[in-house]
Amino acid sequence: MDPAQQQNPLAGLDPARPDATPPVGLKANLFRSPKERAIEYVLGFCALISVFTTLGIAGVLVWESIGFFAEVSFVEFFTDTEWTPQFVDKNFGIWPLLSGTLLVTVIAALLALPVGLASAVYIAEYAPDAVRKWLKPSLELLAGVPTVVYGYFALTFVTPLLQTFVPGLSVYNALSAGLVVGVMIIPMVASLSEDALRAVPRSLADGAYALGATKVEVVTRVMVPGAVSGIIASFILAVSRAIGETMIVTLAAGATPRLTLNPVDSIQTMTAFIVQVSLGDTAQGSIVYKSIFAVGLVLFLITFAMNLAANAVIRKYQERY
């Protein structure tokens, strides 16, 4: 064997460059190094844990929900307008819980999406460096506040404040719960949108300035359109977070499953109902106990669909620079 091939068996495989050393790829490294191979297996095992955990949660929800739907028909579940599983006259219509969840989510989105996007634009394009250094970490501190604190904040401060402006506002209402959920998800919208804006190449903005564009024109016609996939993804992820929020709506929105779109009324969300039934007073195996899995399955399907939508939006509108 040629001496060069004895040192490197892959050398000389290119007829045009017989003396060239071919690049050693990742697979070759893994083949040669047991340590690298072990790291690959450990990382792959960690990834599989998350996949199997998700599949396990979905499997439990489906399995337990089968017992519920063996006693309650799909027609009653999706057409009845009352949800009274703990009453003597039991009704299992999901719409009161679904409307309460959507009402809180819409209120939260109306507050968080414009405020979060405006905050992101200011931090990315307008704020001086000294302001940006403390403003973004300060905003992200809101994400570290426990949701139970947000719940008491809504109940003891926001609701009394709103009662001075909104006549007839009950102590437990969808409006204060939705506003505080919106405050909670503002950092998610602002942080992810700001990251998306800063990922747009600066050369695009410099080119627009060179053509005589103003600051507003650069932001609205270059930077925001260039980051639209990340911005929309942040919107969808934040809304998904609002749909699944539990403690704020449990403390501030009430426990009245009611089919209404009036934000001043007391309502109950899907997550709040699950908390109410899971406190330990419900007999395991009863129809009420099984109902929390059916509600959880609906909640899981909604958030799963939202995540799929976010991925589809990212793939469709993603700009590659």
Quick take:
By secondary structure, the protein is mainly alpha-helical. The protein has helices at 3-7, 26-32, 34-71, 74-79, 95-126, 129-140, 147-163, 174-199, 202-210, 215-226, 228-243, 247-252, 270-277, 287-317. Helix 9 (202-210) runs antiparallel to helix 10 (215-226) and helix 13 (270-277) packs antiparallel against helix 14.
Characterize the structure shown.
- This protein has helices at 3-7, 26-32, 34-71, 74-79, 95-126, 129-140, 147-163, 174-199, 202-210, 215-226, 228-243, 247-252, 270-277, 287-317.
- The chain has 321 residues and is an all-alpha fold.
- The two termini are 47 Å apart.
- Mean pLDDT is 85; it is low at 1-13.
Low-confidence stretches: 1-13
As a percent range, the share of strand residues is: under 5%
* Overall morphology: globular
Based on CA atoms alone, the radius of gyration comes out at: 27 Å
Order of helices and strands: HHHHHHHHHHHHHH
- Indicate the multimeric state: single chain
The profile of the biggest β sheet is: none
Structural class comes to mainly alpha
Helix content: over 70%
Pick out its properties:
70% helix; globular
List strands and helices in order, with pairings.
Layout: H1 3-7, H2 26-32, H3 34-71, H4 74-79, H5 95-126, H6 129-140, H7 147-163, H8 174-199, H9 202-210, H10 215-226, H11 228-243, H12 247-252, H13 270-277, H14 287-317
Helix pairs in contact: 2-3, 3-14, 5-8, 5-11, 7-8, 8-11, 9-10, 11-14, 13-14
